[in-house]
Design goal:
Length: 300
Amino acid sequence: MDNELRDLFAFLAVVRAGGFREGARASGTSASRLSDSVRRLEARTGVRLLHRTTRRVMPTEAGERLAERLAPALGEVEAALDVVNHYRDRPAGTLRLNVPATVARLVLPGLVTPFLAAFPDIRLEVIVEDGFVDLLAAGCDAGVRYDERLEKDMVAIPIGPRTQRMATAAAPAYLDRHGRPGHPRDLLGHACLRGQFASGYTPPWEFERDGEIVRVDPEGPLKVRLGAAADLAVRAAIDGLGVVHLFEAWLQPHLDRGELEPVLQPWWQAFSGPYLYYPGRRHLPAPLRAFVDFVKSRDR
């Protein structure tokens, strides 16, 4: 790829990511190299393309127009170059996945090793984020999310279990001291170990039985970031600090060992499992096509 084309890709990476450092992370290069590329492009066009401040980088009006025209054009260039990959004996290249912590812990471990063993020329990069993500801006080929958090206009296929459940549990010693709840609203009188999103939102605990849905917002001595610090809440529950509410598969090993005891099990709510999603392009990059086919084959 010649320097002029490389500089265009670099400029688009910075615009999509909203900064040189973020663009470097997404594109697998350095911030200084991206900065050099953008400076060359501005010198060549004679137009300022980016507003740079100490806090953020934003495209100028000219930069916005250029980025709008470049995005589909460079996407076709990437797709055209990747077509050659299909003529190799084995697909090669980098596959970047953006997944929530629950998927990194509960779904990917059963897929990553056999996939990379089947495709040794593919390098897999996994970025763990729990919020809404613009895949293209994040420099990712595909993501995994639950249906309510999927980006629009994406192709989505199931990955991992078709259904999952949220489970509630506490240490037997805690329940011996404080009693065993018989209804979700009884949790309002218990010490509950809560989770919150990066935005600061603390979702209520939701339960369902015979078509009745009950949401409770209990208090407790500990609140952790969902996904990233969930193990801290689990450890605290095992130590008898209070009641934890998390993915059943996350808690199952501790339930099996008797470290935790199920609470309100008839009320555990089931929901659909996660989806692998990606832009609906005619020519998928070879590493992504290999992964999509691999996931589908595991589902048979």
